[in-house]
Structures are given as C-alpha cells and as structure tokens.
Amino acid sequence: MVQGVSSLQQQTFTDLAQAAIQLIRNQGCEYGEIRLCTYRQQRLWAQDRSLKRLSDNVSAGFGVRVLWQGSWGFAASHRRTEAEVVRIVQLAVDIAKGSYLSQREPVRLVPVPTYCDRYTTPIQIDPFSIPLIEKTDLLLDLNEQFLNYDPQIKKAYAYLSFTQEDKIFASTEGSVIEQRLYRSGAGMGCTAVADGDAQSRKYERSPLNLGYEHIEPETLKANVERVAREALEKVHAPEAPSGEATLILKPSHLWLPIHESVGHPTELDRVYGYEANFAGTSFATTNHLNQLQYAAPWVNFKADHTQPGGRSTTGYDDEGVKAQEWYVVKDGVLVDYLTDRETAHRLGRPASNGCAFADSWASVPMVRIPNLGLEPGRPGGDRTATLAEMIADTKDGYLIDGDDTFSIDQQRRNFQFGGNGVWHIKNGNLNGMVKNLTYQGLTTDFWNKVEAIAPASELEQRGTDMCGKGEPMQIAQMTHACVPIRVGPITIGR
C-alpha cells in the first residue's frame, strides 16, 4: 500500500488504472499502460560537525504511454483524479498521432504474459521508522571520530539515503501489478592534508534494496579508524609510476569497470543508436552477437533482477515483464543484451528480458542496466584463487580498493579508471600505498587479460544509485556483485 494512503484510496488508484486502460482501448491503440507511482526519498548529509543537508521528499503522480499505429505517445500528471486520467489519456493519444506523422518505421513489441500480482522488497526494519535524530547523531558521531583521529584529518563527511517506491502498473494486455520497493545506503570518508597535498579515503555500505538493517551503525563506526589511517598513509605516499603492471581489483572498485564497460555497452537501445546524441553508442553491435570474445573464456557476466538485495531487484519491470536472470557474457563470449519489449522485437527475440525502467511517474521507461555481476571462479578451477592467493602470487603489481575518477569513450571501448586506495605489491606482500594511480585499456583487451577470479566466498554486492542516462536525464540504480580479480599486464599512469 502507498505510504500514508488508506486501503480505500489504494483501491481508488487501482480503479483509476482500470479506467485509463479502458479509455486507451476505446481510442483504438494497439497497446497502452499506466503507472501510478509514489516515491519517498530521505537523504542526510553531514559534513564535519554539522548536518549540511536533510531532505525528506514525496513525489506522486501517474504516467500514461500508448502505442497508436506503431508510434509512441506519453503524458503524465500529478493530479490523480478521474477527470485528469481522461485528459492525460487523450493527450498521450494525441501525441502518438502527432508522432505518427514523422514515423519512419512502426514500433513493434514482443508479447508478455498477463500478471495480476504484488511484490514487496523483503526488509527487517523500515528505514523511515528510525527517528531523524538517531540518524543525525550517527552521522555526526562518525565525523567527530574522524576529526579527532589526527590533526592532519581536516575534513569528514557521512551520509544516509533511503527510498520507498510504490507503483501500480496496468496495461491493455490485462496486467495489474502492485510493487513496493525499499532502498538503503550509507557512506563516510575523510580527507588528510599534509605537505601541500590532500588525499581522501572512504567506506560505503553499498546501496541495496534492504531496510535499515543494511546500515549496520557499528560496522560504520568500526571502519572509521582504518579509513582515517589509510587517508594519512595515502597523503604521505609516493606518486604512482607509469608503465605496465599486474592489477588486483577488489569488488569495491571492480563494480565500476563492470558498469561502464559491460553494462552500458550491452544496453540494446544504445547499440541501436538511441543514445547517440547524449552518452554515445556501443562497439558491441549485433553483428558481434555469439561471436565476440568479450572476455577470457573463464569470465561470465550474468544479469539478475531476482538477486536478493540487489539495487535493481524487482518483481517486474515498468512494462510488466517478470524479473528474470540471463547471461550477457558466457564463457567470455557476448551472448545477449539488455532489452525492453521494443528492442527485443527488433533483435528478433521472442520476449524481453525485463530491463525497462523509469525513474519517475513523469518519465518514459527506457532500457536500464540490471543487476549485472561477475560470476565467481569455479570451485577447483585453475583460474580460481582467493584474494590472499592472488597477492601472494604477484611479484610486482597493485591492489586497488574503492572507486574514484573514470572516463570512457562514446563507444564504451577505451577507458581509464582510478582507485580510492592503491597498494603496491612486491614479491607477494603489500608494500605500502601509492597515490594518484590510474589505469587505461580497451574493453575487450582488458577483460581478456583476466588471469584469476576469486571464489564465491569472496563475493560482494557493490553498485550505484546514481546511473544517469537519457534526455531528460533519468537516474537508475543497480548492483554489480563480483569477486576480486587479477588482470594484466595493464597500462598504468598518474
């Protein structure tokens, strides 16, 4: 049930959805859908010894999308009344008819089964039930510990983020789906200043679809000393060299290369050029399907909208497609894409794999990266090694923890990444930190240089709640569960 809404009002929303669907059918559209949504977002940000930002916002409304003679029309409103539903449906149809005048090729959709279902994120503690004073005290206490650790620690921050998303989806194909999603995340960090330089370290409770139980205040507090100590070591560390080196990447860092060089290139709308005027295209074009050696044969990337706790875990996407899992890269080969109903039809697939999502009731669903993870090394495999074994087996290399700067070209082919914490490895031992290290590579070259993959016991759920795409910009979230890997030789520099 929508936050603060009675069961009678909830039924009213369902009735509005059904009324909209009947209106769409009466207009002769081949397809139509309505999403009635309520989003609550609470964010707290403390800097040094004060709470700098606090927001607790609710956004509610509905969006209608119709397909009329192969052309899309979309309209939305914050007024959830019967009269407004009539107006918005007519507006969406009029927009579709206007789009039809410039149509080059009609849109076709793959079929989807009819579902009447409810889905709620399993949580233990409702994050909105925790008093704001308790959350604020936690953040200020973390910052105080950082600032009291050493005089060279000059800045500190800590944050909490919570979301509750309620959606009712109905379509002309008969589906009526209600969903409630919870999302929680936390993080903190500090900056050390010395010798004319400033360096930062951070720790995050990676954003997941869980309740307040995910925050683990005692875990945050237990990491303060380590983070502060590493910030001090980092600011006094030598600059990273240039050349080639073996790299060991921890999940806290590896999620970002997965996101940028595997997730975005395999969005099928990007492959087809829908993002060409904004964030680029993709080298992973459909002529490479089932042929391109994307990565080494022991590397597998699997998409999974059913993953417990995953930031993109739902019951259904915003086209009413049921959550599922599938391989994108299998045994190193590109075998599939991320699709919605439109791009799946264009590819010749019988069904969508459920990647259509909108970030608001006022946004149009588009293909978004799902939970996309690197599968752990196979038990007993000759490429499987624990993190400790990888380090012990490395004569000269670098261990990278945490994400930092990055860039990638418009085709998602050539990239550069930096780490938040980097240690030099010498003869199987950590030999102190270095600072300002980045590495560069080509996507397929990089993933084909993976030498070792850690086992499932070292799997971590890492990801983001700030993935931007589209014009106007939409923000999505997803988890990239992964294990440490060793890869090389890779070009490094400052």
Could you characterize the architecture of this molecule?
By secondary structure, this protein is of the alpha+beta class. It has 2 domains: 7-235, PmbA/TldD superfamily (PmbA/TldD fold, 2-Layer Sandwich); 243-493, no CATH class. The protein has 10 helices and 22 strands. The chain has helices spanning 7-26, 82-100, 132-149, 217-222, 224-235, 251-263, 268-271, 341-347, 387-392, 443-448, and strands spanning 31-47, 50-68, 71-77, 116-120, 153-171, 176-194, 197-208, 243-249, 301-304, 325-330, 333-334, 356-357, 366-367, 372-374, 396-408, 414-426, 429-434, 438-442, 450-453, 463-469, 474-479, 485-493. The strands form 5 sheets. Strands 1, 2, 3, 4, 5, 6 and 7 form a 7-stranded mixed sheet that branches. Strands 8-15-16-18-22 form a 5-stranded mixed barrel. Strand 5 and strand 6 form a beta hairpin. Helix 1 packs parallel to helix 2 (82-100) and helix 3 (132-149) crosses helix 5. The longest helix has 20 residues, at 7-26. It is globular. Mean pLDDT is 96; it is low at 1-6.
Which oligomeric form is depicted? single chain
Helix content: 10-25%
Low-confidence stretches: 1-6
Number of domains: 2
Shape: globular
Number of helices: 10
Give the helices and strands, then pairings.
Blueprint: H1 7-26, E1 31-47, E2 50-68, E3 71-77, H2 82-100, E4 116-120, H3 132-149, E5 153-171, E6 176-194, E7 197-208, H4 217-222, H5 224-235, E8 243-249, H6 251-263, H7 268-271, E9 301-304, E10 325-330, E11 333-334, H8 341-347, E12 356-357, E13 366-367, E14 372-374, H9 387-392, E15 396-408, E16 414-426, E17 429-434, E18 438-442, H10 443-448, E19 450-453, E20 463-469, E21 474-479, E22 485-493
Helix pairs in contact: 1-2, 3-5
